[in-house]
Write a structure and sequence with these properties.
The chain contains eleven helices and five strands. By secondary structure, it is mainly alpha-helical. It has one domain. The chain has a three-stranded antiparallel sheet with strand order 3-4-5. A two-stranded antiparallel sheet has the order 1-2. Strand 4 and strand 5 form a beta hairpin. The radius of gyration is 17 Å and the shape is globular.
Length: 213
Amino acid sequence: MPGILYHLSFAEEVYRKLDTVTQLNKVDFMAGNLIPDLATNKQESHYRKKASVGIFLVPEMELVKKDLFKPEDPIKFGMYCHLYLDYYFIEEFLIPEFIWDVEKMKVINPRNNMNWNVKTFFSHSGMYGAYTEINQLMLRDGHVSLDTVKEIPDILPSTGIPIFDTRRNKTWKEELEEYLVQKKEYTGEIFDYDRLWSCIERIAMQFVQEISR
């Protein structure tokens, strides 16, 4: 559900925290964090099930862990990291951040009382545009380095798992470049940047604590 820069920023945050306790090949780990979104079958690559609010789908984390929780394999471990963020970002940020009036198909932001119909909210004039607003702020604040981005290959490595190796034609770098050329001014109407990044930091800490047990 979060975009490319969010997954890369989360992966950077996790890597920094893990670097003192385990050795990971950073490029492979970062690449793994991008692979699930390249699959042509998102239903299977994201192990989807209904979230606590039914208009969302989240990964079935028990199955994800069984298949991909392999710290000795930085690519698969990165894929696990990607799906971990998807699950907790939806359940612990997106869902609590708004009021979801499913009956009226409305989304309400309690911070400013703005509201959208569901179709508009899940569009480039809604949530996806808000992601784009924050991209530049995440780069500005060093949450992800473009030097790191340059090290990751355009064509990501194979995983040996057909679901993940059957991929769309557009590369992740082509998609990222499309986002970065959109210099949308930050308005904060949908997402509060500080609240969003604080949630990502908290999920990263939670991830590291869980795997360090």
